[in-house]
Amino acid sequence: MGCDGANIGRGRCQQGRRDPCIGVGAVTESDIHTAQTTGAIIYAFHVTLPTNIKQLAQRDRVSVRLYTVIYELLDDTKVELTKLLSPEIKEQELGRLLIRGVFKTTKNEIIAGGEVTKGKLTLPAFVRVSRGDEILGEAEATNLKRGPQDAKEVLEGEMCGVSLHTNTKLTLEEGDRLVCRYDEEGWTSGHQLQRLQ
Fold this sequence. Notes:
Blueprint: H1 29-38, E1 42-45, H2 51-59, E2 64-67, H3 70-84, E3 87-105, E4 109-122, E5 125-131, E6 134-146, E7 149-151, E8 153-155, E9 159-165, E10 177-187, H4 190-196
């Protein structure tokens, strides 16, 4: 349980901190004021909410949640804590390209050709460029060509041309590898939530 936007119970709490505020006894006016100031939720277990405190909470728009079953309290707390977590970026590999030739290199663009050795290349996608075990940099695949035709995807075993956009100059050589990937946004899960409790 924590003060700032998560939960609050009765006890000492410093404003602006995300530390737990836990105590024993009924919910008080002080709890309502602290929750209103910090934007917290009050979780109360096996206590009643006096009428004057309920009215004060409604007036100050403070959420007070009463529980008699501990598992319901824990489940609700996990849901609220999940809302506070940052998204987790998961990298998914789509395919790999072995460079067979480099046709153009400028400060921000590379045009090269090669063979898809694993998976597929699709647009749009980010690529990681490597030479042996060394990672040279990253770029964005902006165009794919299968022969003279533009393509949205190229499959394993096919030859293709690829245009890359880079933020810094990157020099490719024959034999370099491109790993085509995309970032998928997910949410942090159970094991990270457990560290917050």
